[in-house]
Amino acid sequence: MELDSYNERKAFDETKAGVKGLVDAHITEVPRIFRLPQGTLSDKKPSVSASAIPIIDFADVHVSREGTVKKVKEAAEKWGFFQVINHGVPLSVIEEIQGGVRSFFEQDLEVKKSYFTRDVTKSFVYNSNFDLYNSSSLCVNWRDTFVCCMAPDPPNPEDLPLACRDAIIEYSKHMMTLGGFLFELLSEALGLHSEILKSMDCMKGLSVLGHYYPHCPQPDLTLGTSNHSDTSFITILLQDQIGGLQILHNDCWLDVSPLPGALVINIGDFLQLITNDKFISVEHRVLANRAGPRISVASFFTTNMLPNSTVYGPIKELLSEENPSKYRDFTLEEYSKGYFEKGLDGNSHLSRFKI
């Protein structure tokens, strides 16, 4: 990394105020470290209407579980993304977590600073850009984030900020319930026993991330989040009504249009690996916006932040002479270490594990 860029990133980091601090200082231009290389945002075909991204009504499972499994299968195989409605998470819980995330990022700076750290072993981590110092990152993203690991060993409640404590604890309970149901449907979509993915500890770990994307004065020059796929088995995303999430499908960027009360589900890298490419983990990004702040909450089912010696590889029942293993065995820790060192550089980490 060039010395100028490093020093600018370090100066930004040391404010502990994140991107919101820049906006609060009434800047009118995006600082250099946030600027994308020219032409980056137009490197793909223009985005088109995303009405085709599947929307699955979980109320239908009571009418035909088989029909719901079929829809999940098609979405996981062809899209890697789908939205769910009537998912069982009360609207009050959704509103509380969104309010909690907003309250955390908009509270008094001195209180917020006390949670600032780059030590990922802490029970609650607040900072801006986990890959801030990675030289491979295209640019610094226009986003502040907190992350807390809520399973298998949830933090002591007093270790969570008062602004969002109750909301995170309550929301996490609902994510574990919904996650369990999703893993059952995905197991059945593979033609396997409904408990197979749970038995592989796919839902052992849950990390909840709160993202805050402030208003951006020049949204065409930067990104809220760079292109990436997720280091998870699945991710459950709650996004507000501002929009900006896009997925890469057939070399086009498609908007994942906000749907009131819906949750966005996406397949993570680990599920693509263990299903031997049957389910796909697709690249996605978040555009910067003038409207902000945009609030989102991502629930990652993964133990990549915890010591875990489990060795994963493609599920044996899915393999055959016609469908041999495409990936070598790996641990989540090994995969995640390389992913975080690489940062959000726009390249998939999956290819490094191909046979």
UniProtKB/TrEMBL annotation:
Cofactor(s) of this protein: Fe cation
Sorted UniProt keywords: Iron, Metal-binding, Oxidoreductase
Name listed for the protein in its UniProt record: Fe2OG dioxygenase domain-containing protein
PANTHER family named among the record's database cross-references: FE2OG DIOXYGENASE DOMAIN-CONTAINING PROTEIN, OXIDOREDUCTASE, 2OG-FE II OXYGENASE FAMILY PROTEIN
Pfam families, per database record: 2OG-FeII_Oxy, DIOX_N
Lineage: Eukaryota, Viridiplantae, Streptophyta, Embryophyta, Tracheophyta
UniProt domain Fe2OG dioxygenase: residue ranges: 204-303
Similarity remark: Belongs to the iron/ascorbate-dependent oxidoreductase family.
GO molecular function: dioxygenase activity; metal ion binding
PROSITE patterns: FE2OG_OXY
